[in-house]
Amino acid sequence: MLLFNGNTHFFLGAIFDESAKKDDEVFRTAVGDLNQNEEILQTEKITFSVTFVDGNNPFQAVQEGKSISSPRFFCSIQMAMKLDF
């Protein structure tokens, strides 16, 4: 979580299987909808980074997760999307 000019910015990192292009689209749309809904986020904004990994190499997802998660929030997206804060 970062503070800029009194606004709170959350950073999410998402990791998708290379074959999950549609999930990436859904994730981007969901974050965009949250950012535009002032009833949910009055002064907060969510920024994100999306990384695609080879679904046959589970270690790549772990390595990517380590590189984008600290000290930020990390969200791993698989079949269902759940954001816990």
From TrEMBL:
Gene3D superfamilies: 3.40.50.2300. It comes from Equus asinus asinus. This is Glutamate receptor ionotropic, delta-2. InterPro entries: IGluR_D.
